[in-house]
Design brief:
Helices cover 6% and strands 43% of the residues. It has four helices and 59 strands. The strands form 18 sheets. It has a five-stranded mixed beta sheet, with no helix packed on it. It has a four-stranded mixed beta sheet with strand order 9-15-14-11, with no helix packed on it. 29% of the residues are buried.
Length: 795
C-alpha cells in the first residue's frame, strides 16, 4: 500500500507557518512524508547553513529531515495502536526549526490506520444457557471482538454459522462500534438437541478484511419461562472524577413476572472486551446499587460503557441486560506541564529584540476550561514569551542584555489553567549570556606622570601601563602601542619602546637632564575583539637631575693645573678683599649648589673664604712672622650625592706698598667700605624681592595645609634672620629655611632649603634670567610636606 500523503499549509504569524501531512502507519523507514524545504520555500543549498531540523517531545525520533533533499523522512517504525491507543485521531506534532535567523514552524503528521490487526475475542469458547421455553425472538448478547485498528479497519460486522434455531442481529453503536445479539428464531427442544454449537465470526472493514472467531456452546435448559426486565434499556449517569470510593453511582431496577425464586433477581456486570467494570465499580448483586470502587481519572477514561445483567433465581435462571453509560465529570486536578523542546544557549549580549532563546510546549491533561492554559515569564528578566500556536511558545529576548552586569539568567516561566481553583506550575530555564566586544580598555588615569633619572641604563623599564577591559577572553586581551609623535623632530619610537603584551615602557637611550627635562607621548590600548576597541592615555616623562657635572671655575682663574697670583699690601687690615673665585655647575637644584673651601699651609690662619660667595679675605693684620708668599688651594664642591668638586691654586704675595699691586684681570676695590655699600644695595634689592616671593609661597602653602589637616594655624609666626656672611634664613616652629646668594658672580643662585638638607624629592622652583619662574614637580615625598627649594639665577 503506497503511503498516503496530504499537505495543508497554514500561516499563523509572520515568522511561523503550520504544515500538515498525512502518512500511513507501518510504512518503511526512509519513506518520504513531504518536502519541508519546498514547503518552506528554502533552497536546498541553504539547508545546512540554516540547520533545518525537527524537534518534538516524543521519546522516539519518528521523523527526520534529509538536509540534502529537504525531505521529511520516516526514521522509525510508526505503530498507530502503540502511539495513540483507543484514539480515533492520531497525529505527530513536531516543530521545524531554522537557524540564521531562528524561526519555528508547526508540523503535524496525521498517522493513518492500516488494517494490520485481526479481530480477536478474549475467550475461545462462550457458554450460553437458554431455556427451552424461550420464546422466539429472544435475544442473547454475545461477546464483542477487539480490534486494535480504527475506522473502516475496525470490526464492522459479525457472522454466525448456519443453523436452524438462531439468527444474528448485528447492531451498529456508532462510535462505540458494533455488537451482535443471538436471536432465537425457532423454539428450542432440549429433548431433541440439548447442546447447540455455533461459531461467531467477527469481520473488520479492511481490504482485504480480517476475521476472528468464537465458539459458542448453547445449553438448552428447561423450566423458567419469564425473563427479568429492566426499567430502562439505557441508563446514563455522571460521576465526578474525584468521587471517593463508596460513592453511589446509580441503583438499577429490574422485575420478573415469575414468582418465588424464579422472580428473585441478582445483578451482575457483563465483561466485554478488555475492560472489566468490576475493577472500577462495585455492583451490589441483590440491591442493584453501583458504587465507586477504584480511582476515577477523566484524563485516562472520560466515559465507561457498562453492560449490566439481571438474572432470576429460577431452576433455569433467565436474564436480561441493559446498557449503562457512565460519564466522568472532569475536575481540575492536573497542573499544566511545561516542556522545553529546544534551548538555544548561550545568547549573545547584543542579541536583537525578538531573538528566540527556547521553544516551549505547555500541556494540561484536564479537559474543557480546566485544560485551557496561559503562560508568562515571572520576574524582571529581559525575556518574554511569544505564542506560536495554541500551547506552543517561543522564549524571546525582550530587553537589552549586558554580560558584564548579568552573565546568567534563571528565567521562571509560570503556566496557569482556567480551572476553579486554577492550578499552575513553574519551570526555570537557565540562559547564559555570551560576551561581545562592547567595552573599550580603560586606564585608571587619563594622564600619567613618569619620573626617570637621567643617565639611567638603556633598556630599563621606566613604567608599566595597565589598562582594564570588562569583557572576557579574547575581547579582554589588551595590547599596547605607541602613537606617532616626535621629540625634537625625533620619533618617540626611537627613544622609547613599549611591550605590547605587558605594557612595559622601555628606554632605548639614556636621558640627559641638561638637554631634555620633560617630554610626553600617547599610548593606545587596544583589545582583541572584532571590531577592536581602544582608548588612549597621555604619558608625561619627567627627567630627574643627577649629579653628573663637576663645578667649572670661571675666568680670570683657571682650573687645577696652573697657579694664579694675587698681591696684597702688608698694611692690609682684617677683612681685606684678596680675590673672588667664581664657578658654575651645569646641574640643577642641590647638584648645582656650590660651596667654597680654602686649604692653607698648616698653622696659617691668615685668610678666610666665604663658603657661598667665594670671596677670599684676610682674617687679621699682617705680622712680621708671616710669610711673604701664601700658596692657597680653593676647593669648589657641589651638594650632590656623591659630591663633585674642582680646585684652583692662588699664590698670595705680600708687598710693602700698594703701588706694587698689579690687577691684570680685574679691578679690586681699594676701600672695603665702598664695596660693602654696593653689596648692601644689591642685598636689599634681592632680599626684598625674595622676601615678597617667599612670603607669597608661604601663604599659599599655609592655605593648602590648612585645607588638608587644619593644623597649620597651630604653628607660630615665621621669623626671617640675616647672618653676617650675607645669607638669611626663614624659620617656623618646626621648620627652618636658609637662603644663600652672591651679588658679584656671572651666575649666582638664591637657594631656599630646609635645614638640614631634605631628600631629592620635593618641589623645585627656579628663577632664571629675565625674572622667569620655572616650577618643576619632583618625586612626591610621602613623609614630609612643605619643603621648598628656590634657585634665583642672575647674571
Amino acid at each position: 500500500m503506497a503511503p498516503y500523503f496530504e499537505y495543508v499549509h497554514f500561516v499563523t504569524s509572520l515568522s511561523e507557518q503550520r504544515f500538515s501531512y498525512s502518512i500511513s502507519e507501518e510504512v518503511n523507514k526512509g519513506t518520504v512524508v513531504g518536502n519541508l524545504a519546498k514547503d518552506l520555500n528554502i533552497n536546498v543549498q541553504e539547508l545546512e547553513n540554516r540547520d533545518l531540523r525537527v524537534v518534538s517531545s516524543y521519546s522516539k525520533t519518528y521523523l527526520n529531515v534529509n538536509l540534502r533533499s529537504g525531505n521529511l523522512l520516516v526514521e522509525e517504525r510508526i505503530d498507530r495502536e502503540e502511539l495513540c491507543p483507543l484514539t480515533i485521531k492520531c497525529s505527530l506534532k513536531l516543530q521545524a526549526v531554522l537557524s540564521n535567523p531562528m524561526t519555528a514552524h508547526r508540523v503535524e503528521v496525521n498517522i493513518l490506520d492500516v488494517n494490520d490487526n485481526s479481530p480477536a475475542f478474549l475467550e475461545n469458547r462462550y457458554y450460553l444457557n437458554i431455556s427451552e421455553s424461550s420464546l422466539t425472538g429472544e435475544r442473547y448478547l454475545l461477546p464483542v471482538a477487539v480490534d486494535g485498528d480504527i475506522g473502516s479497519n475496525s470490526v464492522k460486522t459479525y457472522k454466525l454459522s448456519q443453523n436452524e434455531h438462531f439468527s444474528l442481529d448485528v447492531q451498529s453503536g456508532g462510535e462505540h462500534g458494533v455488537s451482535a445479539e443471538l436471536v432465537l428464531q425457532k423454539a428450542l427442544d432440549r429433548e431433541k438437541q440439548s447442546v447447540i454449537n455455533l461459531i461467531l465470526t467477527a469481520v473488520d472493514g479492511g481490504k482485504p478484511p480480517r476475521t476472528g472467531s468464537l465458539q459458542i456452546h448453547v445449553n438448552v435448559i428447561d423450566v423458567n419461562d419469564n425473563i427479568p426486565a429492566f426499567s430502562k434499556l439505557l441508563y446514563k449517569v455522571r460521576v465526578k472524577e474525584n468521587a471517593t470510593p463508596g460513592t453511589l453511582v446509580i441503583k438499577l431496577n429490574a422485575t420478573d413476572l415469575d414468582e418465588g425464586m424464579n422472580s428473585k433477581i441478582l445483578y451482575s456486570f457483563i465483561k466485554r472486551g478488555n475492560i472489566d467494570p468490576s475493577n472500577i465499580f462495585y455492583l451490589n448483586s441483590e440491591t442493584g446499587e453501583i458504587t465507586v470502587k477504584g480511582g476515577l481519572d477523566y484524563e485516562e477514561t472520560p466515559a465507561y460503557e457498562v453492560r449490566v445483567q439481571a438474572t432470576d433465581q429460577g431452576p433455569v435462571p433467565r436474564s436480561a441486560h441493559a446498557k449503562l453509560l457512565i460519564e466522568i465529570v472532569d475536575m481540575n486536578d492536573n497542573p499544566p506541564q511545561i516542556s522545553v523542546t529546544s534551548l538555544m544557549t548561550p545568547v549573545k549580549e547584543d542579541a536583537e529584540l525578538g531573538t528566540i532563546v527556547a521553544l516551549i510546549t505547555v500541556s494540561d491533561k484536564d479537559g474543557g476550561k480546566n485544560g485551557v492554559t496561559s503562560c508568562k515569564v515571572v520576574g524582571s528578566a529581559p525575556f518574554n514569551l511569544k505564542s506560536n500556536y495554541k500551547n506552543d511558545y517561543s522564549l524571546v529576548v525582550d530587553g537589552p542584555l549586558d554580560r558584564e552586569t548579568t552573565s546568567v539568567y534563571n528565567v521562571t516561566i509560570t503556566a496557569t489553567d482556567e480551572g476553579a481553583p486554577p492550578l499552575s506550575s513553574n519551570k526555570v530555564i537557565t540562559v547564559h549570556v555570551s560576551d561581545v566586544n562592547d567595552n573599550a580598555p580603560k586606564f585608571m588615569e587619563t594622564v600619567i606622570n613618569v619620573y626617570v633619572k637621567e643617565n639611567s641604563p638603556t633598556g630599563s623599564v621606566i613604567y608599566t601601563l595597565n589598562a582594564f577591559d570588562a569583557d572576557l577572553d579574547v575581547n579582554a586581551k589588551v595590547t599596547y602601542t605607541l602613537l606617532d609623535s616626535s621629540l625634537k623632530s625625533i620619533p618617540v619610537s626611537s627613544v622609547l619602546n613599549i611591550n605590547s603584551e605587558t605594557g612595559d615602557i622601555i628606554s632605548l637611550q639614556s636621558f640627559n637632564y641638561e638637554e631634555l627635562k620633560t617630554f610626553h607621548f600617547k599610548v593606545q590600548a587596544t583589545d582583541s575583539g572584532v571590531p577592536p576597541l581602544s582608548s588612549n592615555v597621555t604619558v608625561n616623562v619627567l627627567i630627574l637631575d643627577e649629579n653628573d657635572n663637576s663645578p667649572t671655575i670661571l675666568a680670570p682663574y683657571s682650573e687645577h693645573g696652573s697657579v694664579n697670583s694675587e698681591n696684597i699690601p702688608y698694611s692690609a687690615e682684617a677683612g681685606y678683599f684678596v680675590a673672588k673665585i667664581r664657578a658654575v655647575d651645569a646641574d640643577s637644584g642641590y647638584n648645582a649648589l656650590l660651596s667654597y673651601h680654602l686649604s692653607e699651609p698648616k698653622g696659617n690662619n691668615l685668610f678666610r673664604i666665604g663658603t657661598s660667595t667665594g670671596e677670599i679675605r684676610t682674617r687679621r693684620r699682617m705680622s712680621d712672622n708671616d710669610l711673604k708668599t701664601h700658596p692657597l688651594v680653593v676647593l669648589v664642591s657641589d651638594n650632590g650625592e656623591p659630591s663633585l668638586s674642582a680646585t684652583v691654586s692662588i699664590d698670595v704675595v705680600v708687598v710693602e706698598s700698594t703701588a706694587e699691586i698689579q690687577t691684570p684681570f680685574r679691578h679690586v676695590p681699594v676701600k672695603e667700605d665702598s664695596f660693602s655699600d654696593l653689596n648692601l644695595y644689591l642685598l636689599i634689592a634681592i632680599v626684598s624681592v625674595s622676601v615678597i616671593f617667599l612670603l607669597s609661597l608661604i601663604t599659599l602653602i599655609a592655605v593648602r595645609c590648612h585645607r588638608t589637616d587644619g593644623t597649620f594655624s597651630r604653628y607660630s609666626a615665621p621669623m626671617i634672620t640675616t647672618h653676617p656672611d650675607g645669607s638669611w634664613s626663614y624659620s617656623k616652629a618646626t621648620q627652618q629655611y636658609d637662603v644663600c646668594f652672591s651679588s658679584d658672580t656671572l651666575k649666582s643662585d638664591v637657594v631656599v632649603f630646609p635645614a638640614p638638607f631634605p631628600p631629592v624629592d620635593g618641589e623645585l622652583i627656579s628663577i632664571n634670567e629675565g625674572d622667569t619662574f620655572t616650577r618643576t614637580q619632583t618625586l612626591p615625598n610621602k613623609e614630609k610636606v612643605g619643603h621648598l627649594y628656590l634657585f634665583c639665577k642672575t647674571s
